[in-house]
Amino acid sequence: MAVSGAPVATERAGGNAVAGFLLSGFLLSLLGAILPAWGYHRDPADFVGVGNYFLALAIGLVAATSVADRLRCRKGLHFLLVFAASLSCVALGYLALVSPPISTWWRTGGLLVLGFGAGLLNVGLFHAVDRDYSQNPAGTVYRGGIWYGLGCLAATALVGGTFYAYTVQTILVFMAVIPLVFAFWYSRQRFAAPVEGEHPSMRQALADFRSPGAILFALLLFFQFGNEWSIAGWLPILLIRRIGLSPKEALFILGLYWLFLLAGRLTIVAVLARVRHGRLLLGSAISALFGCLILYLTKNGFGAGSGVFFLGAGFASIYPLVAEAIGRRFPYYHPGFYNGIFSLALLGGLLAPATLGYAAASQGVGVVIGIPLVGTVAVTLLLSLIWLESKVTGR
Description:
Layout: H1 2-16, H2 21-34, H3 47-75, H4 77-97, H5 104-128, H6 130-135, H7 137-162, H8 168-187, H9 202-209, H10 212-243, H11 247-271, H12 277-297, H13 301-316, H14 318-329, H15 335-363, H16 370-393
Helix pairs in contact: 2-5, 2-7, 2-10, 3-4, 3-5, 3-15, 4-5, 4-8, 5-15, 7-11, 7-14, 9-15, 10-11, 10-15, 10-16, 11-13, 12-13, 12-16
């Protein structure tokens, strides 16, 4: 009986693995939500320190990708996922101990470890969803994005819901429980190894990564994640300092941003087959630019809510469009190939708010709107180039 049940349990674990992207979104989005709790909405504000926080996350993420595969080959996928979640739990516990007024460099080190844990987790997840992707490429990418968005929303809701009720140290301890739960869950799962011959060689995957199409996809996600995370990382600070909202109100608006982005993606997936992609792209770009303009000009909470609505609606369509195109263009699956594209996208998502931190130190927090404005134009041009390249090559 045990033998016959093992493959079913393994298959179920592989199917549930995509839900692990909830933890990835939770870990990488918590910095934008926790900044007001650390007091960065008050003067004097160390915006350079905030830039260093995001940069540390990015460095940790990149460093993890260089060692994750070796760790997986030596210890196995099961160990990699449990270790990544456990390390993230420890990093959050450490951040609770070094909250202000302790020097920013202690928190920078903690965020470096947190980024490393998140990077290990992402590599493990791309291996864990192997069989899912082989059966339904676009659907797996869609669902991964939905779970990731839910994780971002959950991190914001947890901080916003406990902001005045608990100290920042207690909030971070609460947050540390989430990766601990995932570590326990992963310890109970078994993930199937990929079938021999199911994938192309790593050489072929790397060759595809050097192809114009794959480079365009990676650049597009790099800029799009930069757009989304510039807003996600700095929106509460922007609203508190420019409009005068309370931290709790600003976090509520940030939660609305994630909610609109998530709801927009679910809507786009439902109508994608019935809407011309060119019109959808044009409407998305106009909506995103209009949202940036509202956020820049608004003087109250209603205007801020309207701005994030149009931003969420504008950003929402990009990921489903790219997911559909990737599933069609690269029907096979190689974890290293997809982790490379996704890691580059996340790198853009963290480098953009890091750059904003350094710019805000000299130009003021209003510069936060600058990157999404430029990035939206870049994303529109890159999507157009992808469609042009696909027509020229017939792929």
